[in-house]
Amino acid sequence: MKSGALVDLIQVGVPKGKQLARAGVVVAVAALLTGATSDNSGYPTGFRNWEHLHSGVILEGSPAYQGFGGLHETYGNAVAMRGYPKGQYSNGAMFVFDVHNVAIAKGSIEPTKRRQVDVMIKTAGAWKFYEFKGDSHTERSITVAQGEAQCAACHNGAPKDHVFRTDDQAPSMP
Ligand code: HEC
Question: Of the residues 50, 66, 88, 151, which should be mutated to test ligand 1's pocket, given the most ligand atoms within 8 Å of the CB?
């Protein structure tokens, strides 16, 4: 169901003079449908409750170490997960690449502080890329223009609609 249609359903029967309450409901429903957040910065609030798709560790020696070294975990919101089987994504789809530094000692690898939160969100038919520093919900490491240039340049080469992770890489359910 399109979000507009659901919003229309909700608006039926709302008496005049309850505009504010109605606006609140509409915002909440829109957030539910898109998995988006009320955080205006674009921070993907609550992403740890999304679908978890992958974990991996990038150590020194990898060409990706400088930008993405540490433990990374990939999450997709509800809209993203609907598109994931085919690799075709609607507006509102979001992926998060959550990166923690790691401590390596005595044969074990433990995550330490969060290094960054990389975000892809599809809006108006195109992906936007953001990177938030550490645990900050507002401080970005790259500008929107840099995101378009650097992140998108590499993600253009991803197998399905700019997304590297694909359903067929995921371990099959028992
Ligand atoms: C040089 C290539 C490269 C660059 C530059 C790059 N990425 Fe990625 N990104 C990848 C690869 C490869 C993966 C998949 C890693 C995996 O699943 O193990 C990935 C995964 C992701 C994911 C999870 C969804 C997916 O595609 O699997 C997000 C979100 C993401 N990157 C955001 C960003 C952001 C934001 C930037 C810019 C700050 C960025 N990336 C820059 C290569 C790149």
Answer: 151
